[in-house]
Design brief:
The protein is mainly β. It contains one helix and 34 strands. Helix content is about 5%, strand content about 45%. It is globular, with a radius of gyration of 23 Å.
């Protein structure tokens, strides 16, 4: 089972991962499908804790990196409400979440302080449409919605979303402007949100006064992302991509891959220097220093609506770094695996173990061994193995082949990979062992290998 890094282990990880300019690989995978309605928004607190929302008052939450999800839909939210934005503000002792949505000509905000067991309506507005919320602490938050009566619907809370106040937040709309779901960011007293009028609005005093910058000829600032401290770098996009290097005062056109609307953007400039965007059914990736984008993952069906990277300042290892939601109710998860930070050893049947492949480097074919123990949840005297999945990933983190995905009894095994149809280069192999009853993860390891033809 993956655990949060301890302080000493985190320091060792940091030195290894960044002192030699090495970097984490990112592996995307599909999570089990619980719903079929469109999912519109995700909020990722710390990899472990995350939630997503969608049509038909749908809310799903996880507390174990997305390996298992609990459906907390409705429970006080009417079934005819389509939820377009969600934000998780706290995780202890229970998850505190707020979700915004609409039904007919009315918009609503709902809040739960008990992990979704019950939801209470905390806001409504006739002829409104709340697009997004952001919290800088458990108590302090901001939300923005489409204009009502000639002014943008802007609101603050100082008690965790229990009450909302628009006093002093007047911003007149220009014509028939509107905003976009999830197109909002907040840091301290600085707030940014996008519009369909070639404008990104921003305030440096928590909304008391506003300015805007133009992204013309692009019309739609349909998604918005700002980097961590000092929040000078940011991106916004519609059908084209724009970048700011001065906290949104000016925006400049940048190249972007694919075609159609860019639906979400995220990145990590303080750790791995990665940038991600979604367009259609694909996730594209690049490093900060490389202007060329790569199609890192293409979903089997559906189009992406939103993705969320973990907000926590504590670095986590393993699964759940990014959650991305799609129009068909599916969730994709991005996992980070850092090479060279932990030595793996063990003897059967005491430990699970994944051996280094041999030969390495290899020419077209290689072998590696793995040990499986009995499931730790089993009673004394019961011998039962877990479901073992061993998959191969290329250097971009794409899964290219699954060698085995079945329940195996405890034993020592060896497996051969025939890679004759693949090109030379770096590859990774992952051993994931789950409990067949419930799907909980009991072992997860990744190793690197090189093929030279």
């Amino acid at each position: 089972m993956k655990k949060v890094l301890t302080v000493s282990f985190f320091l060792a990880f940091y030195l290894i991962a960044f002192s030699d300019n090495s970097f984490s690989q990112v592996f995307w995978e599909e999570l089990p499908q619980l719903v079929t309605v469109p999912l519109n928004s995700a909020s990722n607190y710390d990899c472990l804790n995350a939630c997503v929302c969608g049509d038909s008052a749908t809310v799903l939450r996880t507390t174990n990196r997305g390996y298992n999800w609990t459906n907390v839909s409705r429970n006080g939210i009417p079934a005819n409400v389509s939820l377009v934005n969600i934000f998780i503000t706290a995780i202890s002792p229970s998850q505190v979440m707020l979700a915004a949505g609409h039904s007919g000509s009315n918009t609503y905000v709902y809040r739960t302080s008990n992990s979704g067991a019950n939801w209470s309506q905390v806001f409504t507005q006739t002829n409104g449409f709340i697009n997004a919320m952001w919290f800088t602490s458990e108590a302090i938050g901001f939300m923005a919605g489409d204009p009502v009566g000639g002014r943008w619907s802007l609101w603050r809370t100082t008690n965790g979303g229990v009450n909302w106040d628009s006093t002093g937040l007047r911003l007149a709309s220009s014509g028939t402007e509107a905003g976009f779901a999830n197109s909002l960011w907040m840091s301290g007293g600085t707030v940014w949100f996008g519009s369909n009028n070639s404008r990104v609005y921003y305030s440096t005093n928590s909304g008391s006064s506003w300015a805007f910058s133009s992204i013309s000829p692009e019309t739609n600032a349909g998604c918005l992302w700002m980097s961590s401290t000092p929040y000078t770098i940011g991106y916004t996009a519609g059908s084209t991509l724009y970048r700011t290097s001065n906290s949104g005062v000016n925006w400049y056109l940048e190249s972007a891959p694919g075609s159609g609307s860019i639906t979400s953007f995220t990145g990590s400039l303080q750790t791995f220097n990665y940038l991600f965007l979604t367009r259609g059914s694909s996730v594209y990736y690049r490093t900060v220093n490389n202007p060329s984008w790569t199609n890192q993952y293409t979903a089997p069906a559906g189009t992406y609506n939103h993705m969320s990277m973990a907000r926590s300042t504590v670095m986590y290892y393993g699964a759940g770094w990014i959650y991305a939601v799609r129009s068909n109710g599916r969730i994709s998860r991005a996992n980070t695996f850092v090479e060279g930070v932990r030595l793996i050893s063990g003897k059967i049947p005491d430990e699970y173990s994944l051996s280094q492949n041999y030969p390495n480097p290899f020419n077209s074919s290689t072998k590696f061994g793995f040990d499986t123990r009995r499931l730790p949840e089993m009673s004394v005297g019961e011998i039962r193995g877990g479901n073992v999945k061993i998959a191969i990933y290329n250097s971009l983190g794409r899964e290219v082949e699954v060698l085995i995905n079945k329940v195996l009894q405890p034993a020592v095994y060896e497996i051969t990979w025939d890679a004759s149809k693949y090109a030379s280069g770096l590859y990774y192999y992952r051993m994931l062992v789950t409990n067949p009853n419930g799907g909980s993860v009991v072992y997860d390891r990744v190793k690197k290998m090189a093929m030279i033809k």
